[in-house]
């Protein structure tokens, strides 16, 4: 399976007002529940109205469109990284999964994934 690395740095934010988001940004994930609104975006695009922010994440995604009938893909990646002691933050879209790893763990994560047979570009 092929994984694609993003060169950008990301952040995970807790926000109160979505009206200040730039929806034209190239990359962001927004999740809203009755208890919170969370945003994952490029660090440089983080809004000024963050209630909380966790900085310096790196990201990679699974290349290609994943059919909904596929089982265990994200579980396998997270198991490889858990075994290496690398925490993750994962988000999914209709097509694929994105895995974020803190910057200080990123090189270790890539090494472990390569050793487990993942093709990383």
What do you see in this structure?
With 121 residues, the protein is of the alpha+beta class. It has one domain (2-120): VC0802-like. The chain is built from two helices and eight strands, in the order E-E-E-E-E-H-E-E-H-E. It has helices spanning 73-83, 106-115; strands at residues 2-5, 10-15, 28-32, 37-42, 50-62, 89-92, 97-102, 119-120. Strands 1, 2, 3, 4, 5, 6, 7 and 8 form an eight-stranded mixed beta sheet that branches. It is globular and about 40 Å long. The mean pLDDT is 90.
The topology string of helices and strands comes to: EEEEEHEEHE
Mean pLDDT over the residues = 90
CATH-scheme architecture: 2-Layer Sandwich
For the largest beta-sheet, the strand count, sense and barrel status come to: 8 strands, mixed
CATH class, named: Alpha Beta
Total E-strand runs: 8
CATH topology name: VC0802-like
Keywords:
2 helices, 121 residues, VC0802-like, alpha+beta, globular, single chain, 8 strands
Quick summary:
By secondary structure, the chain is of the alpha+beta class. It has a single domain (2-120), classed as VC0802-like (2-Layer Sandwich), CATH 3.30.2130.10. It has helices at 73-83, 106-115; strands spanning 2-5, 10-15, 28-32, 37-42, 50-62, 89-92, 97-102, 119-120.
In terms of topology, how is this protein built?
Elements (H helix, E strand, L loop, with lengths): L1 E4 L4 E6 L12 E5 L4 E6 L7 E13 L10 H11 L5 E4 L4 E6 L3 H10 L3 E2 L1
